[in-house]
Backbone:
C-alpha cells in the first residue's frame, strides 16, 4: 500500500511510524508547514492512505475529500482540541488514550477508526515524557490497526457519538498561559502539574529572582522555610524555589523577553546569571533521600553490577555535564563490580548541548570544549577493560549520543527506541570516536550508509545490522529491570572471565594496530573546520534547530533525503 505520513516535524513518533510501516508498504514522510505543502505532497505521491502521526495543522479540504486521511489524536475517544495532553496532566486524569479518526471539516470530529486507553502514571509526567512513552507506544499499535482496516474493503469507520458508552472525552480549547498560570504560594504539586503540562513546549511564564522567564523541568524538593518564590539553593544548573507548602527544583528556563538575553532553553542558573550570586551550591542529596529530587547522575551497586544512571534534559550534554559524567564513569570503573550499566533517561543522549553552545559569548570555543569533553567521556568507556560495560537505551539517541552508547561492549535497547546515528544535518563531521566504534560493529559500508543517508533506525533494525545486541521489553517502566537482569546474567556467567580476557586482548590489539587517539585526532581535524570555519553551516543549522525552524529530512522509500558530500570512514581497527 502507498502510505503518506504528513508531519509537522519528523519527531520520535513520526520516525517510529515510518520505521514500522516501511517494512511492508511504500511509505513517504513529508514535513509540512502549510495547507499548500500538504496538497502538494498528496498530489506528488498519490497515496492510498494518509496518516498524520504528529500534525499541528488543519487538513485542507482538497486533501481529506480526495484521500483517506487519518489523524492520530493524543486523547481518548471524544476528546477534541489541540491541547489534549496539557489538559490531561493539569487535570490529573487517571486514564488517557489515543484515537485514530478520519479527517473531515470539523476538527477532531471525524469517523473513528480505532482507540486505545492507558493508565496515567501516578507521578505526574512531563508532557514530552508522556508523549514519547505511553502515547507513542499505544499509537504504534493503533497505526497498525488503521493500516489493516484500510486494506479491508468491507471496513466502515463509526461516527463519533457522545452518548455512546466509552466516549469519555470532550472538546477542550487550546491551553493558554492564563490556564497554565500559578502563584508560588500554591502547593508544590499544583505548580508541578502546571509546569510539567507545558514541558517541553511552551513552558509556563513566571518570575524568578526578578527576571521574567518560562520554566521547565520541575522536580519536588525540600528547603528551609521561607517566602514563596524565593530561591533557596542551586545545584548543577537547577534552582530550588520555595512554594506554598515546600519547594520545587526548576531545572530549565528561558528568558521571556527576547530583548532581555538569549531566548533558548537553558539550565536555569545560566538564565538567571548574576541574580544568583548570593545563592550557594547545594550538596547532592543522599541516595536514599529526597525522593524524586533533582539528581542528574547517580551510582549504586547491585551485587556484581554497578548502575551508573544519568538523565540530562532532552539528552543534551553540556561541557560541565560531560565532565561530571566522565568523573562518575572513572569512579564506577574503579569499583570491583564485574559489569557496569550506563543507563540514560527519557532520552539516552543527543550529544553536545546546542543551547549552551549558542548562548555562550563565543559559541565556537564552547562547541570545541563540549566536543572534547564528550570525547573524554567516550574514552573512559572504551578503555574500561576491568568490567563489561553495557549501554541501556530506554530512550532514543542521536548523533554523538549514539556513538556514546556504542562505546560500550554491549548495547541493550527498549523496543520502540529510535536512533539517529548521523551528524550531517547539523553540518558536522562528528566525533565521539565514531570512526572507531561504529565500523567495528557494523562494518565500513554500513557505517557509511548510516552516517550519510541521515535516516533514523529503529532498535529492532539496529539489532539486525549489529548496532544493538539485545532488544528488550517495550514497556518503559519495565525496561530498567530487564537491563539489570541482562547485566546480572553477564556478571554471573561462567564465561565472564573469558569475556573480560577477550575484551582486554582486543583492546590491546586495536591499540597496537592503530592508537585510539589517532581516531580522535582525525575526527577533530574535520570538526575544527566545521566549528571554526563553519564550512557546512553548523551555525545556521544549530540556530534553526533551537528556534524550531529545523524540521529534519523527509524520509521514506520515495522521499528525497539530503545526502552530504563524500565522507571518509575510518578502518574498523
Residues:
Amino acid at each position: 500500500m502507498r502510505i503518506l505520513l504528513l508531519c509537522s516535524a519528523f519527531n520520535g513518533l513520526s520516525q517510529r511510524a515510518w520505521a514500522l510501516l516501511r517494512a511492508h508498504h511504500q511509505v513517504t514522510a513529508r514535513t509540512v508547514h502549510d495547507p499548500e505543502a500538504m496538497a502538494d505532497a498528496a498530489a506528488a505521491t498519490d497515496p492510498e492512505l494518509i496518516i498524520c502521526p504528529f500534525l499541528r495543522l488543519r487538513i485542507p479540504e482538497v486533501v481529506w475529500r480526495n484521500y483517506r486521511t487519518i489523524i492520530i489524536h493524543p486523547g481518548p475517544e471524544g476528546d477534541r482540541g489541540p491541547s489534549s495532553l496539557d489538559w490531561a496532566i493539569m487535570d490529573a486524569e487517571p486514564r488517557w488514550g489515543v484515537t485514530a479518526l478520519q479527517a473531515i471539516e470539523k476538527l477532531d470530529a471525524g469517523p473513528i477508526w480505532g482507540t486505545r486507553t492507558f493508565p496515567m502514571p501516578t507521578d505526574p509526567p512531563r508532557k514530552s515524557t508522556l508523549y514519547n512513552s505511553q502515547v507513542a507506544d499505544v499509537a504504534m499499535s493503533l497505526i497498525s490497526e488503521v493500516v489493516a482496516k484500510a486494506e479491508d474493503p468491507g471496513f466502515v469507520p463509526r461516527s463519533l457519538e457522545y452518548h455512546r458508552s466509552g466516549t469519555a472525552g470532550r472538546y477542550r480549547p487550546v491551553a493558554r498561559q492564563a490556564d497554565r498560570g500559578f502563584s508560588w504560594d500554591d502547593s508544590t504539586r499544583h505548580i508541578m502539574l502546571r509546569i510539567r503540562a507545558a514541558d517541553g513546549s511552551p513552558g509556563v511564564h513566571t518570575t524568578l529572582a526578578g527576571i521574567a522567564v518560562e520554566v521547565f523541568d520541575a522536580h519536588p524538593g525540600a528547603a528551609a522555610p521561607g517566602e514563596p518564590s524565593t530561591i533557596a539553593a542551586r545545584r548543577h544548573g537547577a534552582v530550588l524555589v520555595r512554594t506554598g507548602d515546600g519547594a520545587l527544583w526548576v531545572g530549565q528556563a528561558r528568558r521571556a523577553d527576547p530583548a532581555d538575553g538569549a531566548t533558548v532553553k537553558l539550565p536555569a542558573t545560566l538564565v538567571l546569571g548574576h541574580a544568583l550570586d548570593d545563592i550557594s551550591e547545594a550538596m547532592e542529596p543522599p541516595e536514599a533521600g529526597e525522593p524524586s529530587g533533582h539528581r542528574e547522575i547517580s551510582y549504586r551497586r547491585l551485587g556484581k553490577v554497578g548502575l551508573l544512571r544519568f538523565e540530562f534534559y532532552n539528552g543534551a550534554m553540556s561541557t560541565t555535564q560531560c565532565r561530571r559524567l566522565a568523573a562518575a564513569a572513572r569512579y564506577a570503573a574503579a569499583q570491583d563490580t564485574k559489569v557496569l550499566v550506563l543507563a540514560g533517561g527519557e532520552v539516552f543522549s543527543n550529544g553536545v548541548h546546542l543551547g549552551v553552545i549558542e548562548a555562550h559569548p563565543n559559541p565556537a570555543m564552547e562547541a570545541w570544549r563540549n566536543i572534547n569533553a564528550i570525547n573524554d567521556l567516550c574514552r573512559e568507556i572504551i578503555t574500561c577493560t576491568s568490567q563489561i560495560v553495557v549501554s541501556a537505551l530506554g530512550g532514543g539517541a542521536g548523533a554523538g549520543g549514539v556513538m556514546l552508547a556504542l562505546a560500550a561492549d554491549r548495547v541493550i535497547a527498549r523496543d520502540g527506541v529510535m536512533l539517529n546515528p548521523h551528524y550531517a544535518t547539523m553540518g558536522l563531521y562528528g566525533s565521539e570516536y565514531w570512526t572507531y566504534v561504529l565500523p567495528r560493529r557494523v562494518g565500513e559500508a554500513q557505517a557509511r550508509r548510516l552516517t550519510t543517508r541521515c535516516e533514523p533506525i529503529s532498535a529492532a533494525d539496529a539489532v539486525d545490522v549489529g548496532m544493538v545486541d539485545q532488544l528488550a521489553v517495550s514497556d518503559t517502566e519495565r525496561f530498567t529491570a530487564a537491563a539489570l537482569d541482562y547485566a546480572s546474567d553477564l556478571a554471573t556467567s561462567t564465561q565472564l572471565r573469558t569475556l573480560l580476557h577477550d575484551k582486554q586482548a582486543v583492546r590491546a590489539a586495536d591499540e597496537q594496530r592503530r592508537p585510539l587517539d589517532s581516531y580522535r585526532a582525525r575526527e577533530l581535524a574535520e570538526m575544527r573546520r566545521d566549528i571554526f570555519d563553519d564550512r557546512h553551516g553548523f551555525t545556521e543549522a544549530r540556530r534553526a534547530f533551537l528556534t524550531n525552524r529545523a524540521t529534519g529530512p523527509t524520509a521514506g522509500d520515495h522521499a528525497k533525503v539530503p545526502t552530504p558530500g563524500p565522507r571518509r570512514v575510518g578502518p574498523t581497527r
Notes: The mean pLDDT is 92. The two ends are 43 Å apart (CA to CA). DSSP finds 20 helices and 23 strands in the chain.
